[in-house]
Request: fold
Amino acid sequence: MPDLSTNYLGLKLKNPLVPSSTPLSHRLDPVLHLEDAGAAAIVMHSLFEEDVRNDEQMIDRFLVHPDAFGEAAGHLPAADNYQSRLDSYLEQIGRLKQRLSIPVVASLNGSSLNGWVELGREMQAAGADALELNAWYMPGDPGLSGEALEDHYISLLRELRQAVTIPVSMKLSPFFSSLPHFVHQVEAAGAAGVSLFNRFFQPDIDLDTLSVVDRVQLSSSADVLLTMRWVAILRGRTGLSLAATGGVHTAADALKMLLAGADVVHLASALLERGPQVLMEMLDGIAHWMETREYASVGQLKGSMSQRNSTDPSAFARAAYLHALDSFTPPPGVRY
Reply:
């Protein structure tokens, strides 16, 4: 049996498969099932800045100043009995740490620079082994430059690093004009790792109601390729831990990410669609592939096909784009 262990954010993990941030971690039982199926760590669902702010406003309006509601104030909950979403999140960290033997990574999601990331200190106190900063701001203002947006993200990261001593990973989108340059800034600001890439739910237009609607669209294995390419480019060019996320549904998908240079592979859609058994199937598939090709450990194969180690580095660059276009032929039966 090959050694599947890996290191991520300074944590020793038994294998590279880590469930990423999903609603599954709202309850204890699903997470216990994930651990039983082989999960090496768990990234919790995100605590959203908007939820924290809304709770603060509600507490201030209804509980701190109940006199404003006259006789109706008697129907309001007592301040001591009200549990905010932050309270619930911190309690869930504690429950997971009590019952799990694998690391627990808490997740913060937001974008403003007004001190909210200091909540990371409370997550650390609750027992989190590491933090994932999921920072995303929709840059719809044409007056906001790419450099200013990057500076904003780096300021968020620095603020969080000042609040905690546990490792911090930053979850990034693929939309930076120079991803390697920004990753170097993230490293200089004190991050221990990056997660590539954040998957955003896009608004849709309902043609019947002529309204903008939200639709949850899960990933497919086709989404692996974008992440695989950038992991391969970054491997050996940064000292950060690399987590690959997006489109990993099979052992083959996970192996490609590891060969490109990922330290861990995050899973979400596959778990939501098929359940915890996906982890067992993928671990068996990874081990079988490694045994067949005489790999002794994940450490041996990890990054062996990164751009720096590839016999054809141009395959990850523009040359591959030109070759793909030149070599394309329509499928059988399609006539032009």
In short: The chain has one domain: 6-311.
